[in-house]
Fold this protein.
Amino acid sequence: MTQVVYDGRAWINGERCGARSGQVFDCISPVDGRVLAQVARCDQADIDAAVAAGRAAFDDKRWCGLAPAARKRILIKFADQLLAHADELALMETLDMGKPIQYARSVDVNSASNCIRWYGEAVDKIYDEIAPTASTALAMITREPMGVVGVIVPWNYPMIMAAWKIAPALAAGNSVVLKPSEKSPLTALRLAELALDAGIPPGVFNVVPGFGPEAGSPLALHMDVDCIAFTGSTRVGKQIHVMAGQSNLKRAWTELGGKSPNIVFADCPDLDRAVAASVGSIFFNQGESCNAPSRLYVQASIYDQFLEGAVALAPQYLPGNPLDKATVMGAIVDKVQMDNVLRYVASGRAEGAALLFGGEQALTQSGGFYVQPTIFAGVKPTMTICREEIFGPVLSVLPFTDAADAVRQANASVYGLQAAVWTRDINQAHGVARALRAGTVHVNQYDEDDITVPFGGYKQSGVGRDKSLHAFDKYTETKTTWIRIDSPV
């Protein structure tokens, strides 16, 4: 039996510590509504201490001064630590956030470990440049770590989102102050302990839990933070950019909301596969994914057939106990989010959409927070459920006539994170993919993924890219050193 020990204290300068105010908050499990732990409710004073620890570590070069190969070895050991404690971390993630244990173990832990390992492996394989100047000059173009990087991550993929940011930031030589979501802070605190065990020096990686206005805002406003990386809602992301400008004009990188369109043409090469992927992707992680394909556009000639298939598959995603290895859809993260999802369902019905499946709270006797998988047809582009990010298991299905109509509807959104196109016509696939305003366009699949490809969006889906070598651009400064050469030859 896997044992989990909860310690809600912050990690600052390599030590566990309570909030300087002495305040705590309850960490409640969405699985059954019970209190898992009391977590330090950190604020400005704690952020100041963590940033000071990070700055001291950066200035004395205990981490950034190591050779890249040395940082690599430690980061790989850090990745190994995640796998060595995989069952513990998966159970902690499930109890804290509500996702099914099978995915917490097979997806979240493995993906976070792989991310840290990949950036560790990459850091001693990136070369600087020499510019093609005249022979009278040598112009060197080098990358340097920024200094102290503030990281604020959401509650839906706590380990993965943290890894996407801390791995390249640490690999580049920065110090990091991580503020996890108050809704799912426990694995972040455990990661700090595992990082220290792996050999990352004290002060280099600090984790400060707390609420956004009390801990997140002070981190974004801090005058000694050189860069802020945020994943979360577009509303808060806009505030992050404002705070970056109000303070020291720190670099601000934001991965924000989505309302991703999924376009299925009548010549789709495998309709059953398209139905299964469309349904599985929106209901995965309880629909709590920024890239969830929540707007499904189906060509009119196959619209009814596709809907029939989607509704037939929906019962497979009825929520169950997240600790049961057979469960494929678990609990919504908390009551606030559950009520928000149900309000969107109510608005869809009130605005005239046809509820074909689900739409109700489930497993009410559990004490947890569960919502049935929900499918709406008869959706109009102007409806709230078609325009706003719900962040829950709610699918809106709309018809389209031709490629131009599909692209017009798909692009009529303030978001531009992901999209998908299903067609056997290679010209149509390329043409529609190019016309879609999204950071990632899938063709004849949805949500296949690899650490080697960048992730991020257009428009109000954010600024910058996570994953791949492109992420190093976010956490390094580019310096030019120009040397005049007076050749004696």
Observations:
- Residues 101-122 form the longest helix (22 residues).
- The chain has 14 helices and 24 strands.
- The longest strand covers residues 137-145.
